[in-house]
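Troubleshooting entry. The earlier prediction with iron/sulfur cluster gave an output that would not parse, so I re-checked the input for stray whitespace and re-submitted. Clean input:
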Amino acid sequence: METIELRGCLEDELIEICKENGLKRFRASQLFQWVQQKTVRTWEEMKNIGDRDRQILRSRLSLYPLGKVREQRSEDGTRKYLFRLNDGETIECVLMDYERTRSRDRHTVCVSTQVGCAVGCAFCATGLQGLQRNLSVGEIAGQVLDITHYVRQEDPDFQVTNIVFMGMGEPLLNYDQVLKAIQLLNHEQGQNIGMRRMTISTCGVVPRIIQLAKDNPQVGLAVSLHTAQDEVRNDLIPMNRRYPLDQLMAACREYTHVTRRRITFEVALTTENARREEAEALARLLNGQFGHVNLIPVNPVVGTGMERPNPEQIKRFAQVLEDAGISVSSREERGADIDAACGQLRRLWEGEL
Ligand code: SAH
Ligand code: SF4
């Protein structure tokens, strides 16, 4: 009989499996809490489940913790992990701003949703690798569980508080798995992370943005806009040829209409696009849209030829948006000293391994 991935199961599914196998219902709650809340990685650690029941459960369920291949620590508190999956593929996962003394109340994890990515954006190290496969529900939620497990070895009270689906891959092209992982991470007997503390980032998969508004209006949405011009965006983000800006903005309007939620628009600035005309075009595009612009200096990736603008250029760009009444923030790329742009590390390390 084929086994089911334990870390991808909701409590109700575990109750069903226990029932089918003649086990008591409370076993399901115990199992769920061991993996989802206490982040244990082996059957042996589940102390309150007796040998006989454990044998039965093991024959139906598989437990695949992610293996830590590498960990890098940045001076600013960012930690970057390279995890190995059960079939040997690797993914990246980042814990942002983690420090023992500061920001004790906010620990954000940047989660991957696919191995590689089919979209192929011009500036993205993950895009350069193509798509290997989708991640399973257990592998998506498992990144949060395993980071928690590793950090708790040094800091037993550690708890992830926020999640951004901004790692490798396009979350809306692995839609069902990502939504189920969100449900798992939100579960109160598990990590209990609020829906509003999780954000999905997309390059603009229009039909899925509209569907997301209906399926989960609570979770946050970030749209990787980068430019307000179709000709430029076609080259940067090939998805734009399928869903150009007018369709994308219509989907964003519908999303805010249904959810009443503000969208974050990500704009990576390069020496090319950090110009006044670009900022003005962006201000026109976002006129009337309930949103917030997040400016990020591009993280230079070998082979893309893109460079960061200087802080003065970024400031001027932000000013144009602000003058047009658009809410804007700019942040320094985190973990810049450890190649934190997702996909970069895997590319570097895979070359060495
Ligand atoms: N596929 C989704 C989520 C993963 S990418 C998306 O595209 O939104 C997460 C974010 O990192 C996106 O905003 C993406 O545009 C940005 N990004 C990718 N490569 C980058 C780089 N080299 N520098 C700065 N941002 C980058
Ligand atoms: Fe894929 Fe996002 Fe990278 Fe584009 S930026 S290639 S959509 S992961």
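This one parsed fine. The chain has a mean pLDDT of 91.
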